[in-house]
Hints:
Elements: H1 15-51, H2 54-67, E1 69-77, E2 84-92, E3 98-105, E4 110-119, E5 122-127, E6 132-134, E7 139-142, E8 148-152, E9 163-170, E10 175-183, E11 191-192
Parallel strand pairs: 1-10, 5-11
Antiparallel strand pairs: 1-2, 2-7, 2-8, 3-6, 3-9, 4-5, 4-8, 9-10
Amino acid sequence: xxxxxxxxxxxxxxxxxxxxxxxxxxxxxxxxxxxxxxxxxxxxxxxxxxxxxxxxxxxxxxxxxxxxxxxxxxxxxxxxxxxxxxxxxxxxxxxxxxxxxxxxxxxxxxxxxxxxxxxxxxxxxxxxxxxxxxxxxxxxxxxxxxxxxxxxxxxxxxxxxxxxxxxxxxxxxxxxxxxxxxxxxxxxxxxxxxxxxxxxxxxxxx
Length: 206
């Protein structure tokens, strides 16, 4: 007897079963894409939150305060040694007030915000309590006989035409820098109020 072995091919998939397989594959692919998009969206939200947090807000506020201040007609009284003063106009073009709390210069390691005030019937110089407050849309004038930036312990002489660097520190922590031109002047020979000195800080003023 001859036994013949028949090689059987696997049955072809039923058309309906094939359609179901394709549907399942498509659903899985769509689920993977949705998951990837969701994860990407979460990452984008985190980045956006990082750019709008408290640090970013403070940075924007600081930048705004810096950009709204301009210094015009800045000059410094010439002197060989000892003390001198910086004058000029501080213009606030913004919509909010700005306060200058301190100043430093390239002419000396010591500087302060000063004003002229009537003390016992005479006009005398003292530290400016609270700093220079500049309301929105106004110009704050620094002039001999009025508010000014006092420079003490000069390290080098200042001659006519010389320039010194001045940096103002604002209440929000930002700074504004400008250059002051050396000019000869006979103004600014005021005396100090009792208890005051060239290096008195605003907080120590009476």
